[in-house]
């Protein structure tokens, strides 16, 4: 890969990292600020309230996917990426200054809700804009590898959030963290987003988008729901193939720390350290799996994920509950994350490879956001609901069932590795028998 391609990957990924830092620190620090906004004495009830607001952010993601996906298809990937980071900066700043229940009653929770709505708008467009940008900016023979950096940057954002949490846990007392220390990551997130805004203002547009005037979708139809409906099969495919992956991802990343402390009984610091170490390994696995998909195809990795998640989720979650200490918890967490790497490393490029350039951002954004609103955003809340009802193991079966549904989709979908992004939708997306090194370089 050339220097220019690495530069595009770096700029696209850096912004994505800050976006997801802001998104995930809400979940990571929820155990500390839940009591600041909700007066309930039961810890699980407080977490359910904060998880409910977390889920609301996901329900704004389809709206953000539609609005910012339209911007990405009509104005360019650069314009969409710049707008998403602006919204995220504003939302992080709102959470940082939100008044507590003792000061403004439920007014503070209302500010929290507004901030999460803005985050939902931002992330709803960020995923598709970065997925299309990273996919289009890479050599056709390296699309899996290049697009895998989307989840590298997403995970890096979460690692930074957890790392900051570990530092604050050591530097501040528990009382200070519950009182005001939880605001620190949101201040940092707002400042980081401002820096990324400058980087994205100077980034280069992808050649595939600039050359797309006559490919796949007419100019006046770019980014419209009418054009998306013409590719409704692909849109429903995105929803179905996302279902199992997003539930598993949020279970083993966002919810894992709470599960280890709230159910497995590990100290909060130990639970945070387990997630932190596991996610570092997870981030390193993404490019390796993405590169593997460039050699053997996307479907083998997706199928491996779905089979593993269907069969292993219940035993892994059950054993995690009884792990008892750092090393067993880390080993089981790593096993789970290795399994879901088959999905996370390549799902961005798979979805982008399904749509023509003129509808690609919206085609990825809206169906993906719908799937996340229904399954990913509610995963934590569903888990806590099962726990509150006294049947926590029911959630394990729920995750396995979602993976089983996606497995059926992976087994029946077509391979997308050799798709020519500039010809998707023109009837010339792939040439039978054409070797990979004969594909035109975008």
From TrEMBL:
<protein>
    <submittedName>
        <fullName>MFS transporter</fullName>
    </submittedName>
</protein>
<feature type="transmembrane region" description="Helical">
    <location>
        <begin position="235"/>
        <end position="252"/>
    </location>
</feature>
<feature type="transmembrane region" description="Helical">
    <location>
        <begin position="149"/>
        <end position="168"/>
    </location>
</feature>
<feature type="transmembrane region" description="Helical">
    <location>
        <begin position="180"/>
        <end position="199"/>
    </location>
</feature>
<feature type="transmembrane region" description="Helical">
    <location>
        <begin position="301"/>
        <end position="320"/>
    </location>
</feature>
<feature type="transmembrane region" description="Helical">
    <location>
        <begin position="326"/>
        <end position="346"/>
    </location>
</feature>
<feature type="transmembrane region" description="Helical">
    <location>
        <begin position="358"/>
        <end position="375"/>
    </location>
</feature>
<feature type="transmembrane region" description="Helical">
    <location>
        <begin position="395"/>
        <end position="413"/>
    </location>
</feature>
<dbReference type="InterPro" id="IPR020846">
    <property type="entry name" value="MFS_dom"/>
</dbReference>
<keyword id="KW-0813">Transport</keyword>
<feature type="transmembrane region" description="Helical">
    <location>
        <begin position="80"/>
        <end position="98"/>
    </location>
</feature>
<feature type="domain" description="Major facilitator superfamily (MFS) profile">
    <location>
        <begin position="8"/>
        <end position="418"/>
    </location>
</feature>
<feature type="transmembrane region" description="Helical">
    <location>
        <begin position="272"/>
        <end position="289"/>
    </location>
</feature>
<feature type="transmembrane region" description="Helical">
    <location>
        <begin position="20"/>
        <end position="38"/>
    </location>
</feature>
<keyword id="KW-0472">Membrane</keyword>
<feature type="transmembrane region" description="Helical">
    <location>
        <begin position="50"/>
        <end position="68"/>
    </location>
</feature>
<feature type="transmembrane region" description="Helical">
    <location>
        <begin position="104"/>
        <end position="128"/>
    </location>
</feature>
<dbReference type="InterPro" id="IPR005829">
    <property type="entry name" value="Sugar_transporter_CS"/>
</dbReference>
<keyword id="KW-1003">Cell membrane</keyword>
<keyword id="KW-1133">Transmembrane helix</keyword>
<keyword id="KW-0812">Transmembrane</keyword>
<dbReference type="InterPro" id="IPR011701">
    <property type="entry name" value="MFS"/>
</dbReference>
<keyword id="KW-0769">Symport</keyword>
<dbReference type="Pfam" id="PF07690">
    <property type="entry name" value="MFS_1"/>
</dbReference>
<dbReference type="InterPro" id="IPR051084">
    <property type="entry name" value="H+-coupled_symporters"/>
</dbReference>
<comment type="similarity">
    <text>Belongs to the major facilitator superfamily. Metabolite:H+ Symporter (MHS) family (TC 2.A.1.6) family.</text>
</comment>
<dbReference type="InterPro" id="IPR036259">
    <property type="entry name" value="MFS_trans_sf"/>
</dbReference>
